[in-house]
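task queued by scheduler; priority normal; single chain, no ligands, no partner chains; default sampling; output format set to structure tokens
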Amino acid sequence: MKSLHDLYDSENFRTVGHALIDQLADYLADADGRDANPQHEPETMLDDYRNILAGALNPNKFFGHHIEHSLHLHSPRYMGHQVNPPAPLTALADLANGIINGSTAVFEMGSTGAVMERLVIEKFVELLELDDSSGGFLTNGGTLANLTALLAARAAKWPAGDAWSNGNGNIRPCILVNEEAHYCVDRAVRIMGWGTAGIVNIPADENFRMRTDLIDEAVLKAEAEGLTPLAIVGSACTTSTGSFDDLSAIADAATRHNLWFHVDGAHGAPVRLDPARKHLLDGLEKADSLVMDFHKMLMCPGLTTGLFFRKGSDAYRTFHQKADYLLSFDTSEEDWYNMGRRTFECTKNMMSLRVFSLLSCAGTSVFRDYVVRVNETAQVFATAVRSNPDFELALEPDCNIVCFRFRPTRVAHSAEELNHLNTMLRSQLVSETKFYIVQTKLRGNAYLRCTFTNPLTEEVHCNELLAELTRLGTGLTDFRTQFI
């Protein structure tokens, strides 16, 4: 494919496309036999791909090479970061839009996407049991969605004037948030120019949930220091441990202090669909704004994030610029079909097609089935950890995130030694087996961390992981004892 004609030729596309679909189908069929995360050195891979650029590679050979060298989310032994293996149907949706290249800034550029986006939001307002007046839109990731929500909070709760037009002036705004919250909340505050003082961290309890009994004191202290609290953020759930803040208690505090109540539910908001665990999200319907990633627990490719507002009209508060060649920003009309009035993105990928394809072709029950499945798999693994005397849980898991560590009973270890042991154990597991897990630090201690996102991960894979960790951990412990 060396000419423009070849690149745009429909028959070339048909040939290459059919071959690629066959490659991807074979990849999915062989997922159980693959390493979840093939190990590559950055410089080696850079040289490898630099060599690819040196010649015109056959497309099928290139795609095959790329597939083989990538992270394999569809492996049942992938238990790493909070990204789900996309349902293949959603990948076909991306393929369709990759050709159409539909955007959703203005209705004329992507009418189908605008309509699907509204219907996706409406359907998930219903599924999440939010207020009937709720509305919102899709955007590129939780980081951008959290920033947008806090900009809306600024517009709604700014004490005087207009921060969008006039800047902060003499006002020193701040938000309150769980000290265990995702770092993107801190980043959003700093982007808005509020500085370090703009983040008031509320201490977490022994289960890493916000100490809601400290909120009133924190508000008064912030005000005494000349700060103006505008919002409070609940985590559903925290990134490291998957712990859910008490959203009802936070909502009550927000009402008492006239604060915007935002919920970062990027990972955990879909747990509302799990009948056995929906109580963890009691109070979600009281949030002024809510973020939820469809690429963490709802089977879509990244980035696909929903930003919901309890009052749908609040979605229009954030941006006030003029762009006369596209649309009018100074109208009070809520023209839902022109997304550019509400989102950071001007040209925005038609991500609604991913979610809508599942809703229209598989129905709503598959979302519930997925969430229930991965949560139950985490419980199966936690039970296995709990019953093994050489391992301990950091805390009982609320959802599909499990934090634990190897702590052999036959040999005494100091806290520092346990940290080194588990760090080495994770590194050895990833380099020598087909499993991929990550690690985290909880109050200075190293823990292994699994996020169960693959609905095809079975109990046998959980038991296999624990067996591999036992084998490797025992080997590391025995090696250490030789030098004691």
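post-processing summary
- The radius of gyration is 24 Å.
- The chain is about 40% helix and 10% strand.
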